[in-house]
Design the sequence.
């Protein structure tokens, strides 16, 4: 979006900066800020260095130029170091004649008419700016002030607008626009969109960082830029010579803010750089509090206010905080300089090792290897997976089995791309090691991951090693687990009879076991062999019992696993409605558990159901979404399942014909994980608009419930969505409507007749995953 020319309002005097590049993105922010500026006399744009506060403020001024007949006066405060010179800087911009205190002259001038004063880059002079703003607002009723700062001014009546990252689309648009300055024929297309999107994500979608990276396109291709981001401060330099020094590199932008911190704030900031994927307050207190003279909460609050830490608002899991990637890199350098890097990493490792043991009960007793049974544990692991992997990275060179033990435990709860955790396990297993429980677990999970990737030869070898060591240790339960993975490898290689015999032997080993979850898995394995042999009734009977037992124990994860297998047996019995119900419940549960592999299984299953019903477009969309996700996590089916899925896909493709089939596939391929779950659990076809509303059908449903005052958690329960999915819907609704809060969404919904009577409906929480009957009994 190009800058407006001043000539549009030639009668309005101003001292706005003149930019030589186009203004890109920030459409929703610009729309919202126009409204805020119309009703608030003091507005402050806050955000980290490089977020584009000054540029947005300038564009906002140009868009509202006709509101200020007395003019818009831009005061650049970055060069001002003396707090006593703030008012003088403004007087200089206005070129006010006369003598006397600068503040008095400003007051006299702003008292004469409606004008906008812009104070740019206030963070190093925050107290002095606050005093001047207070005086002007109290003494000049027609004056309005717009400020940019890395922290708020703390002035009464101040409206704060925290500036977040660009949207993904805006970030790519900005990269393209700035790359064209270096290469005029540059364009974003299918060949480079993916690496550009990754570059923007690694740069936290911050405008300054994106512009600096895009300027390198005349020197190296996009994938090389991406690979060089490990040395980001060397890469992200070379801004325009006309820019202030602090905006000519990302290092300088962050360093400017760091030098304004107190000693305690700086200590906490650099220590927080050891966290990956964010952190909770209690984590920061445990790892970083030693030696600071204030409470971590007070310091963290100050860092958030100064835009050095991002506070993520979450529902149900407590507050969560994070540093941007460039801030992490900068903070690690400062931590290394302070001689504390290894010490804080050791504390980080010890804390998360203990948390992993205490928050996941399956790790407290032998035998290990059982994944968490409930949502809380799985969601904690999903939130802290980055920190857990960072802990393993720190301890990986330890002479004992500490790294292998933690990696094996984590592998049992790993629900994303399996390649990194499998590679880590195999690297650790290749080292000399004691032949104890950690190695047994490592071999078992490495075999499990290899099976999931279709690498049956490697899986068989790892399972054999696990079985041998478990036999030496006299561990019957781990022997049964090893036999399960060995039999899965045999089935993958087409040796069904051998696999069946091994699974019967494994079940015999567990006849005196006190581990009902493991016994359930062994029985499920017997049922799997049965329906692959064509004995569908026997398989269905076993799996009905497995589901009932797991549900009675409250073991939601194994209930979902058993339901998935039951759905296959039901499908083979031509019980499509029962199979659909089973798969839908399993997908819903796997979604809440963040188990992407389980979600993929359910999507493919529901695709087969849709094909069986003759709904071929739906079948193709679900199959495409599952394929994209399985590719991302390196997941592969064994031959029997793939044969069923592939045959179903061929039938739907044949009936639709090439063009319709390709269109449906493309629609499914473009779905995000949450959108795919949403689509799979519903029955309606995807629609982009509802009447003249800018919202999709699902977004309209969410907006109705927001207007009714329903929390995200309750909305998720009512609409069969995860809380994270609901959060995403609400965020997209706010962006589309140009509002900043749930109140804005609610107001819009009521104005457009989107209301719901909650008293007329019963909540769905009691019906999802908590009923005693089987899925087929809910029809």
Sequence:
């Amino acid at each position: 979006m190009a800058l407006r020319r001043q000539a549009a309002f030639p009668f309005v005097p101003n001292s706005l900066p003149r930019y030589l590049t186009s203004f890109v993105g920030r459409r929703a922010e610009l729309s919202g800020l126009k409204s805020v500026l119309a009703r608030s006399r003091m507005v402050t744009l806050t955000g980290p260095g490089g977020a584009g506060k000054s540029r947005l403020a300038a564009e906002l001024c140009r868009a509202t130029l006709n509101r200020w007949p007395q003019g818009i006066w831009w005061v650049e405060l970055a060069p001002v170091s003396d707090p006593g010179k703030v008012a003088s800087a403004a007087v200089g911009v206005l070129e006010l004649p006369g003598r006397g205190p600068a503040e008095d002259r400003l007051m006299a001038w702003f008292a004469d008419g409606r004008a906008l004063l812009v104070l740019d880059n206030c963070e190093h002079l925050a107290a002095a700016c606050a005093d001047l703003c207070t005086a002007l607002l109290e003494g000049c009723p027609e004056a309005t002030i717009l400020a940019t700062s890395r922290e708020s001014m703390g002035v009464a009546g101040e409206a704060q607008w925290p500036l977040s990252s660009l949207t993904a689309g805006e970030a790519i648009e900005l990269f393209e626009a700035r790359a064209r300055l270096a290469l005029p024929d540059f364009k974003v297309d299918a060949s480079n969109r993916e690496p550009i999107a990754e570059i923007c994500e690694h740069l936290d979608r911050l405008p300054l960082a994106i512009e600096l990276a895009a300027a390198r396109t005349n020197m190296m291709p996009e994938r090389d830029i991406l690979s060089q981001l490990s040395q980001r401060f060397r890469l992200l330099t070379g801004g325009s010579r006309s820019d202030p020094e602090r905006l000519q590199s990302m290092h300088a932008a962050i360093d400017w803010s760091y030098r304004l911190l107190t000693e305690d704030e700086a200590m906490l900031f650099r220590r927080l750089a050891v966290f990956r994927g964010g952190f909770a307050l209690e984590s920061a207190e445990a790892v970083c509090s030693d030696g600071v003279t204030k409470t971590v909460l007070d310091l963290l609050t100050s860092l958030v206010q100064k835009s050095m830490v991002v506070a993520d608002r979450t529902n149900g899991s407590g507050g969560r905080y994070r540093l941007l990637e460039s801030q992490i890199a900068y903070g690690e350098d400062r931590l290394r300089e302070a001689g504390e890097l290894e010490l804080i990493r050791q504390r980080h490792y010890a804390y998360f090792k203990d948390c992993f043991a205490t928050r996941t009960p399956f790790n407290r007793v032998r035998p290990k290897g059982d994944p968490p049974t409930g949502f809380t544990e799985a969601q904690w692991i999903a939130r802290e997976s980055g920190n857990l992997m960072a802990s393993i990275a720190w301890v990986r060179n330890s002479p004992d089995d500490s790294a292998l033990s933690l990696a094996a435990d984590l592998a049992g709860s790993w629900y994303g791309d399996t390649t990194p955790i499998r590679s880590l396990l195999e690297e650790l297993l290749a080292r000399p090691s004691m032949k104890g429980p950690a190695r047994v677990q490592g071999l078992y999970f490495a075999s499990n991951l290899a099976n999931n990737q279709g690498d049956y030869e490697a899986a068989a070898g790892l399972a054999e090693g696990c079985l041998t060591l478990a036999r030496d240790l006299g561990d019957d339960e781990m022997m049964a687990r090893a036999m399960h993975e060995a039999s899965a490898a045999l089935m993958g290689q087409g040796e069904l009879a051998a696999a069946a015999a091994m699974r019967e032997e494994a079940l015999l080993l567990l006849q005196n076991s006190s581990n009902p979850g493991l016994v359930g898995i062994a029985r499920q394995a017997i049922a799997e062999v049965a329906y692959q042999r064509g004995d569908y009734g026997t398989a269905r009977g076993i799996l009905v019992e497995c589901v009932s037992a797991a549900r009675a124990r409250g073991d939601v994860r194994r209930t979902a696993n058993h339901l998935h297998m039951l759905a296959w047996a039901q499908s083979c019995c031509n019980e499509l409605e029962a199979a659909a119900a089973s798969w839908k419940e399993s997908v819903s549960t796997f979604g809440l558990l963040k188990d992407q592999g389980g979600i993929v299984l359910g999507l493919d299953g529901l695709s087969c159901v849709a094909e069986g019903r003759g709904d071929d477009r739906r079948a193709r969309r679900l199959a495409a979404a599952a394929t994209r996700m399985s590719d991302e996590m390196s997941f592969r089916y064994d031959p029997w399942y793939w044969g069923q899925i592939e045959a179903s896909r061929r039938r739907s493709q044949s009936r639709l014909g090439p063009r319709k089939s390709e269109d449906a596939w493309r629609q499914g391929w473009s779905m995000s994980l949450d959108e795919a779950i949403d689509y799979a659990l519903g029955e309606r076809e995807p629609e982009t608009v509802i009447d003249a509303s800018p919202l999709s059908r699902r977004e309209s449903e969410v907006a109705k419930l927001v207007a009714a005052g329903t929390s995200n958690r309750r909305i998720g329960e009512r609409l069969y969505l995860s809380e994270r999915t609901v959060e995403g819907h609400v965020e997209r609704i706010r962006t589309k409507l140009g509002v900043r809060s749930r109140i804005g969404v609610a107001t819009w919904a009521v104005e457009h007749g989107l209301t719901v009577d909650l008293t007329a409906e019963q909540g769905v929480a009691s019906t999802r995953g908590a009923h005693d009957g089987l899925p087929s009994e809910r029809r």
Notes: The beta strands are 42-46, 72-76, 115-120, 143-149, 159-162, 310-312, 320-322.
